[in-house]
Amino acid sequence: MPRIAVTVDGVSYEEDVEPRLLLVHLLRDRLGKTGTPVGCDTSNCGACTVMLDGKSVKSCSVLAVQADGCDIVTIEGLGANGVMHPMQRAFHEEHALQCGYCTPGMVMAAIDLLRDTPDPSEEAIRQGLEGNLCRCTGYCNIVRAVRRGAQEMGQAARSS
Amino acid sequence: MTEVGRARRRKEDARLLTGRTRWTDNLQQPGTLHVMFLRSPIAHARIARVDVSAARGLPGVVAAFGGQDFAEEQGSLPCAWPVSDDIVIPDHPPMAVSEVRYVGEAVACVVATDRYRAADALEAIEVDYEPLPAVLDMHDALTEGSPKVHDAGNQAFSVKITSGDLEGAFRDAPVVIDRTFIQQRLIPSAMEPRAVMAATDGDTFTLWSSTQIPHVLRVMLAVVTGIPEHKLRVIAPDVGGGFGSKLQVTAEEVLCLLLTRRLGRPVKWTESRSEGNLTVHHGRDQIQHVRLAAEADGRIRGLQVDLLADMGAYLMLVTPGVPMLGASMFNAIYKMDAYEFACTGVFTTKMPTDAYRGAGRPEATYAIERIMDELAAELGVDPLEVRRRNWIRHEEFPYTTISGLTYDSGNYEAATDRAIALFGYDKLRAEQADRRDRGDAVQLGIGVSTYTEMCGLAPSRLLGMAKYGAGGWEHGSVRMLPTGKVEVITGTSPHGQGHVTAWSQIAADALGVPFEDVSVIHGDTAIAPKGMDTYGSRSLVVGGVAVLKACEKVRDKARTLAAHVLECSPDDLEFAEGAFKVRGTEAQRTIQELAYAAFTAHDLPDGVEPRLDSDATFDPDNYSFPHGTHLCAVEVDTETGMAKIRSYVAVDDVGKVVNPLIVEGQVHGGIAQGVAQALFEEAVYDAEGNLLTATMADYLLPSAADLPTFVTDRTETPATSNPLGVKGVGEAGTIASTPAVVNAVVDALRPHGIHDVQMPCTPERVWRALEGARR
After folding, report:
1. In B507-626, at which residue ranges do the beta strands (DSSP E only) sit?
2. Residue of B nearest to A78 (CA)
């Protein structure tokens, strides 16, 4: 069984894994990182989105062995010292979640979207989040939240 | 400032936003085994042989069973809504024993140390099927000589309700509109797939399930499995959406309980999405034949509705009740002299249908709002005008409709006027005329939906009259803790609706305590023991009111105590901002101080028990009737068939609002699901009964890129059937929006001679409609 080394939310792990083990199952079943949920089996819904070396991936579509040597950030590792990331705060302020199941993936995808497009238009947000499905909100408040998150992250970047 | 009415940010959010969640699949008991089910790949077949022996020997496999192994103990999945006396309710074994009747029905299972080992072992199970003919088309199913789904035949029930002189209404009617609408089959698609965990200590059983109905489930599971009800605890942990799909007693819940009983170890099953598309109950699926008779000026004389409703292969918890929930709603907001509703439930070899957001009411609203537009087109008048000529005027409330419901309150004029203004109705009509004149390839259509619905299920007495197997009351209790903090226990079971926040607002006002000092407990039959759960837009209008009533009882007790402590008559006390003050003096005690006094119990009046807490049950005497006007503008590209929503305005009247943020969110999400039915979604079975839309890649759920921003506003006509003045909101958006969108698509195409487009109005369907019209 291959041995892999990964860092997840700042903690290093070495794990023996079957080659077929999905990254999301490594996170959830082996490492107890259940903040990242699974919503489908065809990589359509995006609920399982995490950051892999700084870029968003759907962790149901990555093998654990492919993550060997990588730095992974999940929704659980976004905030620091009990303070939420500006995008998490924006989702709260704009009521951009109801059941919350899509939320971890949606927040990660939104942050990834801002890497390339720091000040996205509504249209850019809608296109950029196309790979993340939500069944509760109708997306209106998610779009608002991403706008707000972008503004707050922009302000934070300018003031630092 | 009162808490009720404030756009409080939700208490639920922080956990959900930081991944500290309790989805059922997150939960782990020591030694938990994983269950997977082998499912029929054939729509209809006799099971000749199931051999699980090869699976049993594989690494990590603890057990494997076929249906025969459960035959003696698995019982039959319940149907709680026998809508007629002669209804056929077939036996519904949780695991098929001798015959399968839809693709996806479980035929065997494996229990293994992890999900990968379980999946491997499924491959080793052998099943021999002897195929039987699939039964897929409802009309065909009802013809003589059709293959049968069940021995008793393919008709589950047939009911007819008539009010007024229908024949007279249609006789010599100046206008008769006759249409057949198809309500396609939908897959509810809550984002969290179902999951179940079951454990036992040998005496008692605990079941965790991604369910909307822990309380109903407990009763039903006790009946089905024979586990005594008091030995069974059901927990709904965090539940990721439901929309009716988790209002069910499922095969997997029963079988996980039986497996933990048999194996003595905790077992967990988590559905894959593809498995879910096959086996989570589906929604809608009706053929609606609707006839409307009207005067030359558009006033409705009579309405006749004849439905075929696809039950699928079995009757599940409320399968036959779903079309019946629409029985009194086709007449909607309109006055008429005669009405007839007929419905035949039909068995097919497909996944059973059951409640999906709106459940019967979206179907009814679609049919009436579509045919009202057809009436307007026939008469050549504006669709809003034809509605004005027929709707109940605000001064006529309370109003008893032709179908026998009494609408307590409403103001259709106000909601419509507001929607027209926000939408820019006249300007869009002018643009439409201009595009038509120019022969623009992109045509503009305007769709109207002036809906109402009955929700807040429900008065127990009325549910009994409708032959539903349970009541519709709801329970709330309130505990004031020694430190003055408050615990609210509710029988509702939220899965995204924000009850923790909203119930905190209600309790904070009623008790005069800070919003932050209230916590809300739900979803566990051991600690929230009484309840009827969450569906039918009932939680606030029944459960929220129960919380209010429990708070009022606590307040009354606190008043008695305050009078004792302050040595005055209770009548001398006024209650404001959480304190009882002796009128005309400075003397006062806060309710939070009194909670401590009630805890120490050192000095209570005679006959007063320690503690400030109370229970209350609320059973309303009527449904709630939200209403509103939704307007949709759609651009239809007549060359590609692509229909794109350009603008959407929703003005809803849901009575008093506890939290406008939550209400707006529910409306947004509701509209999105209704739009999805209109434009995107359809569960498709092929000619052999295979589900072609069995994955999320094949069943098109709209993404952010597929939907516009919805403009929402409210009018406020308080309900008179509950002391909060509130009406349900969870389903309203879905009920309203589907006809608004399809009316817009048809409106864009009407100059081409098109009078209907079957849902979903995909580019292909629209293009084919245009091609058909050109020929």
Report:
1. 518-521, 573-576, 579-582, 588-590, 612-618
2. B18
